[in-house]
Structures are given as C-alpha cells and as structure tokens.
Fold this protein.
Amino acid sequence: MTTTETLPQTARRAAQLIAASERTTLDPFTEIAWDVPIDDSAYHLPPEWLPLYGTDIWDAMDPQARIAYSRHECAALLGAGIWFENRLMQLVLRHLATLPVTSPAHRYLLVEVADECRHSTMFGEFIRRAGTPAYSPPPTPRPSTPLEASPAATPSATCSSSPSRSCSTPSTGRP
C-alpha cells in the first residue's frame, strides 16, 4: 500500500483535498430541513446587493415587494450558479476521461463533481420552493460535428442593451 509520503506532490495534494472534502461534504437531502417553508419575512439576499437597491424603483416598492424581489434575485443568482456548475462539471468530466482511474487526481475530481451536483441540487430545490421561474442563460447552440465547432461556423449571439437583456442568434433570430 502506498502512503502519502511516497506519492508525488500532486497525488499528496489530491489525497489532502479528498480528506478535506470528506470532512466538509454535506448531504442536502439530510442536512437541510426541506419541509420548513421559505421565510418571506426577511430578505433572501442583503438589500445592498440587489440591483435596484438605492434607485427610485426601490424607493417606490413597499417592504413586501422588496422581499419578493430579493427572492427572485436570489433565485436568479442560484440559477446562474447551477449554470456555471454545470459548465465546470462538463470540463472536469472531459478532463477525467484523460486520467487513469487509479490516479488520486481522478478520485479527487470525482469528489468535486459530486459536490457540485449537491450544490446544484440545493440551488434547484430553493428555486422550486421559492415559486420563482428557473432563471438561466439562453441555451448555447451545440455543434454536432467538429467542422461545425469551428469559430467560422458557429453563429455569434447578439444581445441588446435594453433592460430585458435579450439575446438572439443570427440564424434563428430567437432568444
């Protein structure tokens, strides 16, 4: 059996990270009381983090509208978190395919992907329970062949500068 002292530096670091993950990993299905209703008596994000805070629109909102707005902004932030974690997991999984399954780095990256899945589970559950839309960026067209993946063959998205921040691709004109 190999000890961490005899492993190369990367393998030692992977073993340390695995041990740290084992100590700090939480199971969202057992650690969170999902049966407790979402509390709409307080802000879901600090008010000063909200885009409308300090504006005339914010000043015109009553306290309940501000709290509901903070719930939507929190859901949008969590939706972006899910999107970014999905992208991260895709990159990590592609890299995993290049590593030997016996590598400590391979095991650590699997632990990381599992943690990202748990984060996304928690974020998605909040969004579902908050009763807000599932905010996310528009879908990215996915090339079906390597030829289509070339920059010249991939349509670029255009985004308006309007408050709705709508985007469309030239090929479809649709968001």
About this structure: The chain is about 50% helix and 0% strand.
